[in-house]
Amino acid sequence: MSHGTNAMLVGMRRREPATVPRTSWRTRGAWLLAAVAGAFTLAQLVLVRPGMGLGWDETVYVSQVGTQGPASFFSAPRARGVSLLVAPIASWSTSTELLRVYLALLSGLGLYLALRVWRGLFPARVLAAAGALFASLWITLYYGPQAMPNYWVALGALICVGCFLRARADRHDRAALWGVVAGAALMAWMRPTDAVWVTLPLLALAPAARLWRLTVALYGGLVAGAAEWVIEAYVSYGGLGQRLSDGSAIQGGLGWYFAVDDQLRSLIGRTLCRPCTAPMPNPVVFAWWFVLPLLAALGLAIAVRARRTAPTLLPLLCAATAAFPYLFMIGYAAPRFLQPAYALLAIPVAAALFHVVTKPNGRWRPAVAALVALGLAGHLAVQYVVLDRTVDRTTADRRDWARTAADLNRLGVRPPCLLTGHQALPIAYYAGCSSAATHGSNANSTRAEILRTAERIPTAALTEPGGSPPGYARDWEVHRSAGFDLHLAPTPGPAGPA
């Protein structure tokens, strides 16, 4: 089997065209990718807006290195990559606007570098179009300036797969070999389990084809990126097996679950669809989702016919394995989960679109090009509408969190302090407090511990309006604030710390 795989790769290597000369790329390609990356950065700043407050998961990641309050509970599935990514800003500034601008600039630069590693594998215009297709999705624009891991896994996937193909074609390309290490490490740094799913085809192919240097590079990158996560598993979570088990439990128990329909429901702008019981959105919202695999299949057929299969087949295989657990193993959905798959699919899809709208001699097919342009315009319009509504709703929700935090501070719940109950974790970040939960995915305390803490520092339990507080807080003073009932514990006695 290994000889057959090796022979197949050697055959593909011989038939595929040589890498585009570097001088040609510098004069005709780099500026296209720079323009796409620049437009992506600008679109984030204009459409998502830096003033949008931090979300639930963002407060967890930022609080690990930030100065606004105590570090939030860090559950088993999370990795420290995002915290380290934001540390250059969050470690000295509490400005959300500054953090958003920093991440928007960084995400634009990352997109440029990730596309650039594919130079010579596809024409520059195809790569620029692929970048534009990926960057114009509402999901990409929305999460680009956020302190979340999935976009960075997507860039790591592009870098790793592109450099793998370059290193396979040229054994003397040391930069590509190190690019494989960097891409794999970036993915594992952000989400170790996602990194394994993305690289499964590469991990199988490299040793089967006796590409030993690539095999070492892949494993080396994964180990380098996941080392901290594994060490932390033994230090804080009872071992690697226990951390994986806890992570599975937090996600509802990994196993066979058909979540394709859940992902479709989330495309309307539901950033977390759990439980995902809402009605299916208008087909206009998710039509592109079904066109995407069709165009990817067309791109593969074109590549096979042109005898340059590998540069198209490998990203498609990695996209499939990246998407598999989120489509068939998790009982809920979030559109950001599929970002690595979208990024890898974008290149074959862009190649297919160019094949459709141009003749073999390179001239345009006017009628077909007009039809494709009309379809893309409609697609972009849908993406913009979903993005705009999602940003407005998210901004309003996070303003409510900020107002609630301000009301808590005004009522005397000031640092050091403790919040528990409904939405306590993100509101605690805004208020500069710690948070506690006795059950659920963020359980980190007990009833007795919360009561002991309430005797020392200001403590409050949050509920929805009219909701029932925990039994220990039923006699606490109640105040209303921005859609929350605030149940304030009695003021700590003089023996408590100042």
Molecular structure report:
The chain contains 20 helices and five strands. The termini are far apart. 63% of the residues lie in helices and 4% in strands. Mean pLDDT is 92; it is low at 1-23. The relative contact order is 0.10. It has a five-stranded mixed sheet with strand order 2-1-3-5-4. By secondary structure, the chain is mainly alpha-helical. The chain is globular and about 85 Å long. Helix 9 runs antiparallel to helix 16.
Keywords:
5-stranded mixed sheet, 4% strand, 20 helices, mainly alpha, 5 strands, single chain, 498 residues
User: Which structural class is indicated by helix and strand composition?
Assistant: mainly alpha
Number of helices: 20
State Rg.
25 Å
What is the share of helical residues? 55-70%
Number of strands: 5
Shape: globular
Share of β-strand residues? under 5%
Main pleated sheet: 5 strands, mixed
Low-confidence stretches: 1-23
